[in-house]
TrEMBL record:
<keyword id="KW-0032">Aminotransferase</keyword>
<feature type="domain" description="Aminotransferase class I/classII large">
    <location>
        <begin position="32"/>
        <end position="353"/>
    </location>
</feature>
<dbReference type="InterPro" id="IPR015424">
    <property type="entry name" value="PyrdxlP-dep_Trfase"/>
</dbReference>
<dbReference type="GO" id="GO:0004400">
    <property type="term" value="F:histidinol-phosphate transaminase activity"/>
</dbReference>
<dbReference type="InterPro" id="IPR015421">
    <property type="entry name" value="PyrdxlP-dep_Trfase_major"/>
</dbReference>
<keyword id="KW-0028">Amino-acid biosynthesis</keyword>
<comment type="pathway">
    <text>Amino-acid biosynthesis; L-histidine biosynthesis; L-histidine from 5-phospho-alpha-D-ribose 1-diphosphate: step 7/9.</text>
</comment>
<dbReference type="InterPro" id="IPR015422">
    <property type="entry name" value="PyrdxlP-dep_Trfase_small"/>
</dbReference>
<dbReference type="InterPro" id="IPR004839">
    <property type="entry name" value="Aminotransferase_I/II_large"/>
</dbReference>
<dbReference type="GO" id="GO:0000105">
    <property type="term" value="P:L-histidine biosynthetic process"/>
</dbReference>
<dbReference type="InterPro" id="IPR005861">
    <property type="entry name" value="HisP_aminotrans"/>
</dbReference>
<protein>
    <recommendedName>
        <fullName>Histidinol-phosphate aminotransferase</fullName>
        <ecNumber>2.6.1.9</ecNumber>
    </recommendedName>
</protein>
<dbReference type="InterPro" id="IPR050106">
    <property type="entry name" value="HistidinolP_aminotransfase"/>
</dbReference>
<keyword id="KW-0808">Transferase</keyword>
<dbReference type="Pfam" id="PF00155">
    <property type="entry name" value="Aminotran_1_2"/>
</dbReference>
<comment type="similarity">
    <text>Belongs to the class-II pyridoxal-phosphate-dependent aminotransferase family. Histidinol-phosphate aminotransferase subfamily.</text>
</comment>
<dbReference type="GO" id="GO:0030170">
    <property type="term" value="F:pyridoxal phosphate binding"/>
</dbReference>
Length: 365
């Protein structure tokens, strides 16, 4: 091809999503396939949201770019000012906007490895130097991350709980970290799985916003709220920061349908509570199962488990795929001997455990 791209573009790989169910059915000639690969809510969205979706309204009219109704609802729910919110087509888009606004070739950004792939991907497009700090037993190494901050650092990413390890940074460690981070460095707390956290010492990030203007929280409706297909998420931060990013936002980046569904989803906290309980129960079951099978599940505060299975994750992925179960291989996620399994419904998890056990016995022969 003769077209000339930015040099960095040649080095980028496209995001590898979990395999879609329909593709697997077709490729392998299977009738029944379950997907435990993308950390979606297997129970969602709530009935209230489904009802809302049936009244789709006016697709010929542009959405409210300001997302007024949703903005009010979220501000109310979190007890923050409306000007502290920025909405995106998923928190993915907010990550992109932050990188566009703050990173360039002269700057760097600090993140854990392995962590959520989109921080690195978007930072790379902007030409920023990427400082990756290995996890320590699956957990962010905040001391080492602190040590890699220098004068050129613009953004530090803390995925809390971390995808793909499921582990979390506690309140005391995060506070101690914030005490030391220079106030001109933005600390992004990605709380995509925050609604699933059970640990009582999980940081109260909204409270941290009152002390630190350089903290930004990312939340999404894709996981617990069950709206991954509608693409809606947001950032909460200090108003001066949010108002700087706002002009970069495409004017109609979130759809009317997504905004309406998100309002209904936020309003149904009973559903959230119910899903959290189910996830907790099923997570416990799966943890026990893996331990009994001699595997090591990382302690998870999310709706997925990263499990060290002692053999290459691609092999396990393939074996399960042929049995109609889609998981993620740890190979592409930076944990070669692991698989990442989303916690499904009770029935899905039983199907998973049955097949995993059967596959294990084929290994032993
Ligand atoms: C799923 C996920 C997101 C992205 O969610 P969207 O709002 O759907 O873009 C962000 N961060 C982490 C860690 C995730 O796992």
């Amino acid at each position: 091809m003769k077209l000339k791209m930015k040099p960095v573009i040649d080095e980028l790989k496209p995001y590898e999503p979990g395999k879609p169910i329909e593709v697997v059915k077709e490729e392998l000639g299977l009738n029944s396939v379950i997907k435990l690969a993308s950390n979606e809510n297997p129970h969602g969205p709530s009935r209230a949201v489904q009802k809302q979706l049936q009244q789709a309204g006016t697709p010929n009219v542009y959405p409210d770019g300001h997302a007024r109704e949703l903005r009010q609802a979220v501000a109310d729910y979190l007890q923050v000012n409306e000007g502290q919110l920025l909405f995106g087509a998923g928190s993915d888009e907010v990550i992109l906007l932050l990188c566009r606004a703050m990173l360039s070739e002269q700057t760097n950004t600090v993140m854990a490895t392995p962590t959520f792939s989109q921080y690195k991907q978007n930072a790379a497009v902007e030409g920023a130097k990427i400082m990756e700090v290995p996890l320590n037993d699956g957990v962010h190494d905040l001391d080492a991350m602190m040590d890699s901050i220098d004068k050129e650092t613009r953004i530090v990413w803390i995925c809390n709980p971390n995808n793909p390890s499921g582990t979390y940074v506690n309140a005391a460690d995060f506070s101690a970290f914030m005490e030391r981070v220079p106030s001109d460095v933005l600390v992004v707390l990605d709380e995509a799985y925050g609604e699933y956290v059970e640990a009582s010492d999980y940081p109260n990030s909204l409270e941290m916003l009152n002390t630190y203007e350089n903290v930004l929280i990312l939340r999404t409706f894709s996981k617990m709220y069950g709206l991954a297909g509608l693409r809606i998420g947001y950032a909460v931060g200090a108003e001066p920061l949010i108002s700087k990013i706002e002009p970069l936002r495409p004017p109609f980046n979130t759809t009317t349908l997504a905004q309406k569904a998100a309002v209904a989803a936020l309003d149904d906290q009973t559903f959230v509570q119910d899903c959290r309980e189910k996830n907790k129960r099923e997570k416990h079951k799966l943890n026990t199962f893996f331990q009994e099978k001699g595997c090591f599940p990382y302690p998870s505060e999310t709706n997925f488990l990263l499990v060290d299975v002692g053999v290459n994750g691609d092999r396990v992925f393939d074996a399960l795929l042929h049995r109609g179960i889609i998981v993620r291989s740890g190979e592409a996620l930076g944990f070669p001997n692991c698989i990442r399994v989303s916690i499904g419904t009770e029935k899905e998890n039983e199907q998973f455990m049955g097949n995993f056990s059967e596959w294990l016995t084929t290994l032993e022969q």
